[in-house]
Automatic annotation (TrEMBL):
Chain segments annotated as coiled-coil in the UniProt record: none
The protein, known as: dTTP/UTP pyrophosphatase
Catalytic reactions on record: UTP + H2O = UMP + diphosphate + H(+); dTTP + H2O = dTMP + diphosphate + H(+)
Necessary cofactors: a divalent metal cation
Residues in the signal sequence: none
Catalytic site positions: D71 (proton acceptor)
NCBIfam families associated with the record: maf
Annotated site location: Important for substrate specificity: R13, T72, Q154
Protein family (similarity comment): Belongs to the Maf family. YhdE subfamily.
UniProt function note: Nucleoside triphosphate pyrophosphatase that hydrolyzes dTTP and UTP. May have a dual role in cell division arrest and in preventing the incorporation of modified nucleotides into cellular nucleic acids.
Keywords of this entry: Cytoplasm, Hydrolase, Nucleotide metabolism
EC number(s) stated in the UniProt entry for this protein: 3.6.1.9
InterPro entries: ITPase-like_fam (IPR029001), Maf-like (IPR003697)
Length: 194
């Protein structure tokens, strides 16, 4: 029986990345709080949030369905930068990222009726020093409030600011698709069924 994949995310970036695999999927959204215990660190936060989101879908899943949930965080100098609450916080985040190296960590959960697999990927991102004018331009013309760390790698600030990435570019965009593809095979995904 072919696997029916559900993407439980509003992220246009995750939709775009997953579409690139040519695996059919549907999008289902539930409003799930993105809270975590303060003692959690780095990948523990991302994995916890991905698993927490998936738990909201478990009782609704059909026998042939797999739900994919994900959460991306930015980790800088032993602190997490999630989505900024307003433009002032977005500016502060970009100023902190400017001239520094940070990690982008995406936690992913694949959940079926029978099993659950939670995993993560880490990419190291090197930012050059950004001018205040560049940051202000980005804040004025783009949408930083729906992104961890207040930036999109595929947008202006990523294009002009990122000097290099160690690890997966797609992970920085919001989904380590190479890992998702491999793990989906364990849930019965077969290229013949695509």
């Amino acid at each position: 029986m072919p696997v029916k994949l559900i993407l439980a995310s509003n992220s246009p970036r995750r939709k775009e990345i997953l579409s690139g695999l040519r695996i059919p999927f549907t999008i289902k959204i539930k409003d799930v709080a993105e809270d975590f215990e303060p003692h959690l660190q780095r990948e523990q936060i991302a994995e916890h949030l991905a698993g927490h989101k998936a738990a909201a879908y478990k009782t609704d899943l059909q026998a042939d369905e797999v739900v994919l949930t994900a959460d991306t965080i930015v980790w800088l100098q032993n602190s997490v930068l999630n989505k900024p609450k307003d433009l002032a916080e977005a500016k502060e985040m970009l100023q902190r990222l400017s001239g520094n190296v940070h990690e982008v960590i995406t936690g992913v959960c694949l959940q079926s009726r029978q099993k659950q697999e939670i995993f993560h990927d880490v990419s190291k991102v090197y930012f050059r020093k950004l001018s205040e004018k560049e940051i202000d331009f980005y804040l004025e013309h783009f949408k930083p409030l729906d992104k961890a760390g207040a930036y999109g790698v595929q947008e202006f600030i990523g294009m002009i600011g990122i000097e290099r990435i160690e690890g997966s570019y797609f992970n920085v965009m919001g989904l380590p698709v190479h890992l998702v593809y491999e793990k989906l095979k364990g849930f019965g995904l077969d290229l013949e069924s695509i």
